Amino acid sequence: MDLTPLLSWACIVFTVGMFSTGLTDLRKMRESKSADNIQFLPFLTTCLNNLGWLFYGTLKMDHTIIVVNVIGALLQILYIIMYFLYTKQKRLVTLQTLAAAAVLICGWLYFTTFLTEGDARLQQLGLTCSVVTVSMYLSPLADLVAIIRSGNVQVLSFPLTVATFFTSTAWVLYGLQLNDYYITVPNTPGIFTSLIRFYLFWKFASTSQSLPSYKPLHV
């Protein structure tokens, strides 16, 4: 039985749902007319990651990867624009955005000019996207250590944790179905970090006496 169509839809639904959690921050910014206490870099790095995977999906002609990352990139661009409108640190945000644009342009030139057509370009692009994705999943580990020490899980988002778990699982299974380790390997850490967060919720949620609040991107 070919599970590829089912896994494809699961990847699309779960990933778009995970990206949509940023709408909570968007609502907060609009209501408060401020971007205080909201992180900007997760929006920017996720956008770069989406564009990288979009290029990979285009080269591989994988419609699932293309659809997911087109939607993801558009959402992140929306978050970036709204953040810029409401932040007081417009100069810093502009510099960070220009730096990200420079990285994107350099990457585009490298993969389109210096690499020949074919498997070599696809493999190097897949490896680059995988490294970025793994680093995004593992970057909040320091925050998890701090949570273990403090016993406070209010900075974690339970809905985002659930979305990350199902999204990572769907992509791992999809990658295994296609025998594409550039999809399978980078999403595996997302499963383990989600399980760690589930454990932290189970252990500390009763002592927090409140529902966890939202913190953007893979915490």
From TrEMBL:
Pfam families: MtN3_slv. It is found in: Cell membrane. It comes from the Eukaryota. The chain crosses the membrane at residues 6-26, 38-59, 65-86, 93-113, 125-148, 155-175, 181-202. Its main location: membrane. Keywords: Cell membrane, Membrane, Repeat, Sugar transport, Transmembrane, Transmembrane helix, Transport. InterPro entries: SWEET, SWEET_rpt. It is a multi-pass membrane protein. Belongs to the SWEET sugar transporter family. PANTHER family: RAG1-ACTIVATING PROTEIN 1 (PTHR10791), SUGAR TRANSPORTER SWEET1 (PTHR10791:SF30). This is Sugar transporter SWEET1.
